[in-house]
C-alpha cells in the first residue's frame, strides 16, 4: 500500500473518502438559514441565547517572526480569524461564505451583525478560541461562536492555513495539508489568543488572562496539547502521518512534532490563561500520540465529547485520552449511536449532491441541530464554571451515568439538570 493511502486508511479507519473527481462550483446561491425554530422545551436550557447582541468581524493575524515548517524551512505563517463579540448595536445579519470538501461554494446566514461596535466592558470579556478539524473552515462551528458571544465572551475561530477545504484539493491530493496540521494546530491556538489580546479593536474590552479552547477532531488534538498534553510521536508514526519514507527525515520530523502547549518544550509552559478545554471528537488518542505522564499532569479541566461509534478518531482512543487526563474536573460526554460529526453546523444544501460532501456534516442517527444545542449547553456550562468562575453553572456539568431516565424500582429518575423530562435521551457522562 502506498504511504499516502496507508496514512489515509489509518486516519479515516479504512473508509473510502471519495469515488469520483470533484466538481468545483464557484457560484454562490442566496444565503441560507440552517436552523429550524424548535420550541425551547426540547432543547437544553443553556442553549438559549444570552442577553448580548452579537457582532462579528474577520481579521488577519500573523506570527511575528518566520516559523519552521515540517521540512525545517523558515516560512511566514498567517491566519484568518472570525471573531464574535458582544456588540453595542445590531445591523443586518452577517453571512458566512465557505466551501464543501469538493469545492461547492455556499453562503449561510447567521445571527450576528458584521463589524458593529463592541459593547464596552470594564472587567473585560473572557476569550474563547475555536479550532476546526482536518479539513474545515473557521465558521464550521459558527453556532458556538455566536452563542458564547451572546453570553459575554469574545470568541475567535481559526482558518488553519494549509488545512481548510479551500486549501486542500481532496480530489487530487487529499492529504497535502496533514503534516502542517500536525505541526501547527496547537501553535495556532496560542497565537490566536495572543492576537486577540493585542488587537486594536478588542484589546481594551477583553480579559485574555481568562480563556478557554474548543477543538474539533484535529482541533481537539491541538487543544489537548495546548492545555498540557505533550506529543509522543515515534519514528514510525512520524513517517506514517507525514508521508516520508526516509528514516532520517522521519527522525527530524518526530523531533519537530514532539512539543507541548503550543510548540513549547514542556507541559510546564502551558499559558496560565487557559482555564478549560472542550475537545469534540479529538484525534490522536487512537494512536496514543500523547505522552501519558503529560496527560496525567494536565491541570485544566477538559470536557471530552465523543460518539461511541466514532470511526475516525476512535471512541476507545478518546476514552484513552479522558482516562489519562489528570485534571479532576475532566469529564467524558458520550453521544450514543453517533460517529464523528458531533460538532459541525448542519449541512448546507450544496452538500447534498454527494456522500463525500454530506458525510462531513450529518450523523446517521442524530438530528444535527440537536447535537449543536447539546454542544452549546455544555460549552457554556464549562466556560461559565471554569473560565468565569460562576459556580452555580458547574451544576450543569455535575450529571452522571445515562440521561435516559430508565426507571429504578418503578420510579423514573429526574432529568439531567438543564434538560426537560424525556429530552436528554442518548447521552452518558463519566467523571473522575
UniProtKB/TrEMBL annotation:
Molecular functions per Gene Ontology: 1-alkyl-2-acetylglycerophosphocholine esterase activity
One Pfam family, short name: PETase
PANTHER family: PLATELET-ACTIVATING FACTOR ACETYLHYDROLASE
InterPro entries in alphabetical order: AB_hydrolase_fold, PET_hydrolase/cutinase-like
This protein's name: Acetylhydrolase
Species this protein is from: Alteromonas portus
Gene Ontology biological process terms in this record: lipid catabolic process
Keyword Lipid metabolism: yes
Domain of life the protein comes from: Bacteria
Keywords: Hydrolase, Lipid degradation, Lipid metabolism, Signal
Region forming the signal peptide: 1-30
Start and end residues of each PET hydrolase/cutinase-like domain: 123-225
Amino acid at each position: 500500500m502506498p504511504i499516502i493511502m496507508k496514512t489515509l486508511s489509518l486516519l479515516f479507519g479504512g473508509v473510502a473518502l471519495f469515488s469520483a473527481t470533484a466538481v468545483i462550483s464557484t457560484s454562490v446561491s442566496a444565503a441560507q438559514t440552517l436552523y429550524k425554530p424548535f420550541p425551547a422545551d426540547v432543547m437544553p436550557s443553556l442553549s438559549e441565547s444570552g442577553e448580548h447582541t452579537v457582532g462579528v468581524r474577520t481579521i488577519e493575524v500573523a506570527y511575528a517572526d518566520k516559523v519552521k515548517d515540517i521540512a525545517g524551512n523558515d516560512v511566514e505563517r498567517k491566519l484568518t480569524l472570525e471573531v464574535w463579540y458582544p456588540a453595542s448595536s445590531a445591523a443586518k445579519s452577517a453571512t458566512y461564505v465557505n466551501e464543501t470538501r469538493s469545492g461547492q461554494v455556499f453562503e449561510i446566514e447567521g445571527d450576528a451583525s458584521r463589524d458593529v461596535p463592541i459593547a464596552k466592558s470594564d472587567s473585560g470579556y473572557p476569550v474563547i478560541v475555536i479550532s476546526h478539524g482536518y479539513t474545515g473552515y473557521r465558521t464550521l462551528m459558527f453556532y458556538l461562536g455566536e452563542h458564547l458571544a451572546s453570553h459575554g465572551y469574545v470568541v475567535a475561530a481559526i482558518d488553519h492555513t494549509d488545512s481548510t477545504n479551500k486549501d486542500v484539493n481532496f480530489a487530487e491530493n487529499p492529504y497535502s495539508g496533514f503534516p502542517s496540521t500536525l505541526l501547527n494546530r496547537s501553535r495556532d491556538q496560542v497565537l490566536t489568543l495572543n492576537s486577540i489580546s493585542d488587537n486594536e479593536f478588542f484589546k481594551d474590552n477583553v480579559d485574555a488572562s481568562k480563556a478557554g479552547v474548543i477543538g474539533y477532531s484535529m482541533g481537539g488534538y491541538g487543544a489537548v496539547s495546548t492545555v498540557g498534553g505533550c506529543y509522543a510521536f515515534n519514528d514510525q508514526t512520524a513517517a506514517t502521518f507525514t508521508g516520508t519514507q526516509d528514516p532520517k527525515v522521519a527522525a527530524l520530523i518526530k523531533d519537530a512534532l514532539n512539543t507541548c502547549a503550543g510548540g513549547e518544550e514542556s507541559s510546564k509552559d502551558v499559558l496560565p490563561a487557559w482555564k478549560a478545554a472542550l475537545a469534540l471528537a479529538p484525534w490522536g488518542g487512537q494512536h496514543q500520540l500523547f505522552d501519558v505522564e503529560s496527560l496525567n499532569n494536565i491541570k485544566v479541566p477538559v470536557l471530552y465529547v465523543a460518539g461511541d461509534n466514532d470511526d475516525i478518531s476512535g471512541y476507545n482512543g478518546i476514552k484513552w485520552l479522558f482516562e489519562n487526563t489528570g485534571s479532576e474536573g475532566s469529564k467524558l460526554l458520550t453521544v450514543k449511536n453517533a460517529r464523528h460529526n458531533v460538532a459541525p453546523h448542519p449541512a448546507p444544501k450544496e452538500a447534498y449532491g454527494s456522500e463525500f460532501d454530506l458525510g462531513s456534516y450529518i450523523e446517521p442517527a442524530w438530528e444535527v441541530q440537536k447535537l449543536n444545542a447539546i454542544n452549546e449547553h455544555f460549552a457554556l456550562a464549562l466556560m461559565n464554571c471554569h473560565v468565569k468562575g460562576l459556580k452555580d453553572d458547574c451544576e450543569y456539568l455535575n450529571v452522571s451515568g445515562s440521561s435516559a431516565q430508565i426507571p429504578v424500582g418503578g420510579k423514573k429518575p429526574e432529568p439531567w439538570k438543564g434538560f426537560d423530562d424525556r429530552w436528554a435521551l442518548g447521552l452518558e457522562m463519566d467523571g473522575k
